[in-house]
UniProtKB/TrEMBL annotation:
It comes from Streptomyces cathayae. Belongs to the allantoicase family. It catalyses: allantoate + H2O = (S)-ureidoglycolate + urea. SUPFAM superfamilies: Galactose-binding domain-like (SSF49785). Pathway: Nitrogen metabolism; (S)-allantoin degradation; (S)-ureidoglycolate from allantoate (aminidohydrolase route): step 1/1. This is Probable allantoicase. GO terms for molecular function: allantoicase activity. Residues 47-208, 229-369 form the Allantoicase domain.
Length: 387
C-alpha cells in the first residue's frame, strides 16, 4: 500500500523530464519547508553515517549525507554507468520471463546512524538529478538503540522501528519534504526506496536531545554546540553561509565553514541569537575567526538571557529586555581563536553574539554546565515517550 501523506506545500511525484541541457538545476523542484531551520540530525559533520545498504551498485550510500548540494555532470560515465552524486541501486527484476516486474513490496534500504540523537520533525528526500531512475516511493523508520550497534544488531528482530514516513510517492529531481509528528528520541533511521532507484541526499531535521548522563560526566561542556542541543534561533544575515556553522563541531577549515555576512553599507551591525542546551551556568567563552582574514568581524560582544529564571544571577546587570552583556565589545583579530574567562559564572538559556560592523566569525563556544533546573528539563526530554 502506498500512503498519501497530507502536506501544506507542493507534493512532487512522477518523473522529471529528461535533462534538457544548460543549468541542471533549472527545473529542480523545491519548496520552503518550515522545519528546514532545525538541526540536520543526519549531518555528516555531526558524525552521521550510512552504516549499511542492501545495494549500492550505481552510486555509493555515503553520498546521501554529504552536506553539499548534489553535482551533475552529463558527460561523466564510469565502468558501471552514469556517475551519480547520491545512493543508487540496480534495477530490480521479477522472477521469470513471464513475470519480469518486481513484486509490490520489493525495495532497497539503507541504515543511517544519526550524528546527534534527537526528535525528528521533518525529512527531505532529495532526488536531485535522478530523472527516470528515482524511486517511485520511499518510507522512513526510526529506532533508538544505545551504544554503538553494528549493522547486524540494527537488523535483528529485537529492534523496535517506528514509522516516521509511511510508504509515500516521491518525484524525480525534487526536494521531497515531509513533516514528521514529534515522537521519541531516535538514534538510527532506515530509509527504504520502492522498488529501487536513486536518492541524492537525505536531510533529517529535528531537535538534538543529548544524553544527560554524558553531559553530567563531562562536567563542563559547550552549552551552545549543535551536538549538545544548542541551536540558532535567528540571525541578521545569511547571505554567504548559515549562522549554524558557528556552533558546528571542531575548528573551521575554510572560509565558508564559518559565518560570513555581506558588507554592510549602513550604520547597523550583525548578530546571531542562540538557544542553549538548557538553562546553564556559563564560565568561559571562545570566539574564533579562523579563515576570516580580510573579512573578520572588527569587534564582538556576547550577551545572555535567562528565559526561565527569575532575577538574573552572576556578574553584571540585565537590560530592560532581559539581555546581559557578558563580554563587552572587544576587538577581534583575523584568523585567531580568542578566549575569555568570565569574572563570575552567568546563568542563561539563550545567548547572542553581536559583531561590529559586519564580517564573520567561524565559531562561538560557551563553556559551562546545566543548572539543576536545566538538568531536570533535559532528563525529561531524554526520557522515552511511549509511541
Ligand atoms: N542513465 C542512467 O542513469 N542509468 C542508470 N543509472 C546509472 N547510474 O547509470 C539506471 O539504470 O538508472
Amino acid at each position: 500500500m502506498t500512503a498519501q501523506h497530507p502536506s501544506p506545500w507542493p507534493r512532487f511525484s512522477g518523473p522529471a523530464a529528461p535533462y534538457g541541457g544548460g543549468d541542471p538545476y533549472a527545473d529542480y523542484r523545491t519548496a520552503d519547508f518550515p522545519f528546514a531551520g532545525l538541526t540536520d540530525l543526519a549531518d555528516r559533520r555531526l558524525g552521521a553515517g550510512v552504516v549499511a545498504a542492501n545495494d549500492e551498485f550505481f552510486a555509493q550510500r555515503e553520498n546521501l549525507l554529504l552536506p553539499e548540494r548534489p553535482l551533475f555532470d552529463p558527460e561523466h560515465f564510469g565502468h558501471k554507468g552514469k556517475i551519480m552524486d547520491g545512493w543508487e541501486t540496480r534495477r530490480r527484476r521479477g522472477p521469470s520471463a513471464g513475470q519480469p516486474w518486481p513484486a509490490a513490496e520489493d525495495h532497497d534500504w539503507a541504515l543511517i546512524r544519526l550524528g546527534a540523537p534527537g526528535v525528528v520533525r521533518g525529512i527531505v528526500v532529495d532526488t536531485a538529478h535522478f530523472r527516470g531512475n528515482h524511486p517511485q516511493a520511499v518510507s522512513v523508520e526510526g529506532a533508538s538503540v544505545s551504544g554503538s550497534p553494528a549493522p547486524k544488531e540494527l537488523l535483528s528482530d529485537g529492534v523496535r522501528w517506528t514509522t516516521l514516513l509511511p510508504r509515500t510517492p516521491v518525484g524525480g529531481h525534487a526536494a521531497n519534504g515531509f513533516a514528521v509528528p514529534a515522537g521519541r528520541r531516535l538514534t538510527h533511521l532506515r530509509l527504504s526506496q520502492y522498488p529501487d532507484g536513486g536518492i541524492a541526499r537525505l536531510r533529517v531535521y529535528g531537535d538534538v536531545v543529548p544524553d544527560p548522563g554524558w553531559l553530567e560526566a563531562l562536567g563542563t561542556f559547550d552549552v551552545v554546540a549543535l551536538e549538545n542541543g544548542g541551536r540558532v534561533e535567528d540571525a541578521s544575515d545569511r547571505f554567504y553561509s548559515p549562522a549554524a556553522n558557528t556552533i558546528r563541531p571542531g575548528r573551521s577549515r575554510k572560509m565558508d565553514d564559518g559565518w560570513e555576512t555581506r558588507r554592510r553599507r549602513d550604520r547597523g551591525h550583525d548578530w546571531i541569537r542562540y538557544r542553549l542546551t538548557g538553562q546553564a551556568l556559563i564560565r568561559a567563552l571562545e570566539i574564533d575567526t579562523a579563515y576570516l582574514k580580510g573579512n573578520s568581524a572588527g569587534w564582538a560582544s556576547v550577551s545572555v538571557r535567562d528565559a526561565e529564571g527569575g532575577a538574573a544571577e552572576g556578574a553584571g546587570t540585565s537590560g530592560a529586555d532581559g539581555w546581559r552583556e557578558i563580554l563587552p565589545r572587544t576587538r577581534l583579530q583575523p584568523d585567531t581563536e580568542h578566549r575569555f574567562v568570565l569574572p563570575a559564572p552567568v546563568i542563561g538559556t539563550h545567548a547572542r553574539v553581536d559583531v561590529f560592523p559586519d564580517g564573520g566569525i567561524s565559531r562561538l563556544r560557551l563553556f559551562g554546565s546545566l543548572t539543576e533546573q536545566g538538568a531536570t528539563a533535559l532528563a525529561a526530554r531524554h526520557r522515552e515517550p511511549a509511541d
